[in-house]
Design goal:
This protein has 392 residues and is α/β, with parallel strands linked by helices. The chain has 15 helices and ten strands. The protein is globular and about 75 Å long. The structure holds zinc ion (2 copies). The site of one zinc ion (ZN) has 8 residues, from helix 1. It holds the Pfam family ATP_bind_3. It comes from Stachybotrys elegans.
Length: 392
């Protein structure tokens, strides 16, 4: 069989079959098309203003590493005029975050960007290892997600930066759309589809430039661009519900590659039909809905991505005429679907247009409740710690 020729340049040999639309492209064309699509997302949604200082939420994982690399490339190519900074959160997870932070430190040198690291221990007095020691592994993702969101905001404030970009990809967004659909939480669904989150009350704007990029294409981009990233998954167990939604999406993608973008678009359409869209947007919302276990790196049924990465590495050396990107292996199926009990959600699910943003009485962080989510969680943790001390 003769080698397949790239359908874009009609010159080079195709080495990539795009997971998104099965187009067969050469390395250069794939990288160019991927970058052009992110550029289109950025310009069509007017994401940046010239001269803006932007913090990239960097975990060392593939999503945020690709985001940093692509933003650097596009910033130089198209003259965005952005001042890019890497912002990392140290959750305090030994054997996971300490290693991935080493990757971020190398990225800072490779991309010539300043790096700021903020730690859970200095911000909250707790590392995730200590949280898990206290509450166990179940539900720890909720704590981590809430803490991470605030940590990024606080890090941005320390740097006097008002815009944080995160590596959330199309799979992450589709996953959140499905989760909120299954929970019947339309207001949250509406908020999660927006490329920019946060509102006029929030000092820090959040956005997702990779919102339309497939996770598999991010892996391919990182591979073909030879980016230095950390691919180990978080050692703590993820939320069972999120894992189930993720498996569902991966299965849908197998029979219909466009399913991921279709779900994202459907979510956007539903958002337009939601009356209180944006009204109740509060800083805590996304922490739980989107950020669970790094989302960018903590893969739940991650075996598929790990297999894909291993396959890419193996293929890199092999002289195969054509690289077929097929999804191998069956996705891990969740055995239990335990829905965490969260009283607030039921309340939030109902359209309550009068939800107002104020500040947390404890830490001053913006919150729709008297006390922000992080402080509420901290109160439980500190109570547990005090009780443990008494017991001794
Ligand atoms: Zn080409
Ligand atoms: Zn607070």
């Amino acid at each position: 069989m003769p080698p397949t020729i790239c359908m874009r340049c009609s010159t080079n040999r195709a080495v990539v079959k795009r997971p998104k639309n099965h187009h067969k492209l050469c390395r250069e064309c794939f990288l160019a098309v991927f970058e052009d699509e992110v550029h289109h997302t950025i310009t069509s949604s007017k994401l940046f203003v010239p001269g803006e200082r932007v913090a990239i939420g960097a975990s060392g994982g593939k999503d945020s590493t690709v985001l940093a690399s692509v933003l650097k490339t596009l910033n130089e190519r198209h003259g965005y005029g952005l001042d890019l900074v890497l912002l990392s959160v140290d959750e305090g997870i030994k054997g996971y975050r300490d290693d991935s932070l080493e990757t971020v430190k190398r990225n800072a040198v490779q991309y010539d960007m300043p790096l700021k690291i903020v730690g859970y221990d200095e911000l909250y007095g707790w590392t995730m290892d200590q949280v898990v020691e206290t509450i166990g592994k179940k539900g720890n993702c909720t704590y981590c997600g809430v803490f991470r969101r605030q940590a990024l905001d606080r890090g941005a404030k320390i740097l006097d930066i008002r815009h944080v970009v995160t590596g959330h990809n199309a799979d992450d967004v589709a996953e959140t759309v499905l989760m909120n659909l299954l929970r019947g939480d339309l207001p949250r669904l509406a908020r999660s589809t927006s490329i920019v989150t946060g509102d006029s009350m929030s000092a820090v704007k959040r956005s997702k430039p990779l919102k339309y990029a497939y996770e598999k294409e991010i892996v391919l981009y990182a591979h073909h661009k030879k980016l230095d990233y950390f691919s180990t998954e978080c050692i703590y167990s993820p939320e069972a519900f999120r894992g189930t939604a993720r498996s569902l999406i991966k299965n849908l993608e197998k029979v219909r590659p466009s399913a991921i973008l279709d779900i994202v678009r459907s979510g956007e359409d539903m958002a337009r039909l939601t009356p209180d869209k944006g009204q109740a947007a509060c800083a805590c919302d996304e922490g739980e809905g989107m950020g669970g276990c790094g989302s960018a790196d903590g893969r739940t049924s991650g075996s598929e991505m790990a297999q894909m990465e291993a396959k890419l590495k193996a293929q890199a050396g092999a002289e195969s005429l054509e690289t077929e990107i097929t999804s191998s292996g069956t996705p891990s199926t969740e055995k239990t679907v335990s829905l965490p009990i969260r009283g607030r959600r039921t309340k939030e699910a109902a359209p309550v247009p009068l939800q107002k943003l104020g500040s947390c009485i404890k830490c001053g962080y913006m919150s729709s409740q008297a006390m922000c989510q992080a402080c509420t969680l901290l109160e439980t943790l500190n109570k547990n710690r005090a009780e443990a001390d008494i017991a001794i």
